[in-house]
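Quick question: what would this complex look like in 3D?
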Amino acid sequence: MAERKTLDERQQMSEAERLRHSCAHVLATAILRLWPDAQLAYGPAVEEGYYYDLDLKHRITPDDFPKIEAEMKKITKENLVFEKVTVTREQALRDAETGRLGALTERPEPSRFKLENVRSIPEGEAITYYKSGDFLDLCAGPHVMRTGNIGAFKLTSVASAYYKGDEKNPQLQRIYGVAFKNKTQLEEWEKMQEEAKRRDHRKLGAEMGLFALDAEYVGPGLALWLPAGGAIIEELETLAKQTEFQAGYVRVKTPHIARKLMYETSGHLPYYADSMFPPMVVRENTTADRFLSENIEVAEESLTMLRDGLVKAGFLLSPDEVRNNPGLLRDALARISSLRMEGDVGEVIKQNALYALQSELRATYAGEPNYYYLKAMNCPHHHRIFSAQPRSYRDMPLRLAEYGCCYRYEQSGELFGLMRVRSLNMNDSHIYCSPEQFAQEFNAVNEMYLKYFKIFGIEKYVMRFSTHSKEGLGKKYVDQADLWVKTEDMVRRVLKESGINYEEVPNEAAFYGPKIDVQVWSVIGREFTLATNQVDFAVPGRFGLVYRDKDNSDKTPLCIHRAPLGTHERFVGFLIEHYAGNFPLWLAPEQVRVLPITQEQIAYCEEIVKELRGQYVRASMEFSNDKLQGRIKRAEEAKAHTMLIVGGRDQAANAVSVRVHGKGDLGSKPRAEVIADILAAIRERRP
RNA sequence: GCCGGGAUAGCUCAACGGUAGAGCACCUGAUUUGUAAUCAGGUGGUUGAGGGUUCAAAUCCCUUUCCCGGCUCCA
């Protein structure tokens, strides 16, 4: 549940929000006319429209929408006035008790959510109703004047939502809708929805052959990059590698798994075990394991001897004797293997004895198995790289960079195309520095973000500065109160001094320190955390990382975790929607498609392709039985960035006709000039 | 993980208790083309999986996997 809004804040609702919120009341009225016993909870305006949460025995499905919408239509036609009524607390409680609140009439059952809402209103705050026709709702408003002001609306979906957003509360039915001043705006919205569907990265990703999600064989949330998508991530990696190289980073490479000790040390296991894949249990091939697997039948048989006490010697062998001469025990067991137990009792004894023997052998020889975890983050591996060599203050700042593949066990219901996956290729780096170097390093990271945003034309973004909360210390956050405050001050200062636009969000930090998340919006309105930049004052200490300072003392470095391009998965997902699949030349999976008009030009076209590919341009020639128009249509549909069309006239003039995806025919130009321009556009990463 | 809705050819969809079909894609052939669809033919399916009801199941029922819309979560 969001923070309770003050009355003043509520009054600041925009015109559109007032309209949406009013439509929520109209929706509620319609529901009550159809199902008078509905228990209403909340009906706020949200970014796109509005919803109303309610509890109702009847399960509302989209099939009910026409019926509800028809009723809503009647209500807007009735043009009811939204009338504000101020009441006393006692009156409000009474109306909730009699079921009148959030209803059309008094009802046998109290309006239980409204009752709770009344009770949660702070003493002294005015309590108001809004009344439209018979519908009376506890509501701070504001509203439009009349229901008739709502010119157009539509119910969009029905879902469930936890009461007050708490997983432990029961789920209510939530009906979503949109509302507009007039029909034209509704139509515009519908058009936008169509456009959004068209741009959906899942749809474009399949159409363009960028990636595949093979849940059956690979697993849900584990993306396969197809060659076209692979081309994009190669470009992104090149961009990152070049940028990081120039910024003084060094590249490392680490395995995808690590032993349990790693994550016990990092603190991830206690804090984030749930979002890691369960461990692989690896039992090394010890003497006891080998023995058991080779002699399991003999061992079983031999247990009969326990009862008869015949071959105690087999168990009295010392571990060393067995280890040095496994044949001894085997022989002993073999000798008594002819003995057999009869009946149920014998079977039970045998089973117990087998278990005892196995445990004994395991405890003696095998010890604890090894647990390996798929890494959910790269930092621990990088910390171990830090400690793999002695470090001096002269080495600092040390910027270790890697495109590391991490695995996170996201909840099944959370997976979403490429945006939320279980294997992530992170544009990761850890910067180890001294407190004195921190401001400059942190600033440089932020600058790098801005540089990237410019390349991709990302204009709308917010840096969210997430800080800790005192209550979370020792639970959600490492229990080092003074370091939290100190580090957060440090970050805040850098942000203020650099003049970067940011907003502070309490109680959202990483467990080891404050972080900055970069929120962006794709053109179709989807919001993402694209990149992240975190300060870690805790984990380097847990790993005992130190560098030798000028004064010959060992100091623990600060660590900045940063991932300006986030993960390949989310970033490419974002880019697909951002560009609607129409990537700039440098990113386009298919950069150049050369189309000879007749067979006569094939040799000439092959030469052009060869020249382009020699310069690492993703170019190919396409000649088929189709007419030119058809081939152009297919090239456009495939979103090939640049088409070079070559007919007899072009070849005679050593020229090519250029057509750019979405821009149409640009005319015939000298071949050398065209190729030079293509190379320049790629090199400069022109938008 | 929770609530709800889905899953038919590579893609978009049809058949809604009675012989699984169309367009595009793909393959073959003809056509050699000047800027968003040349023509003809052909291949393609255990209807997500498993069970049940029925003379008969893509269709009805149950289980399960996955996907979608939300919620919760998100280092």
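Answer marked as accepted. The longest helix of chain A spans residues 343-366.
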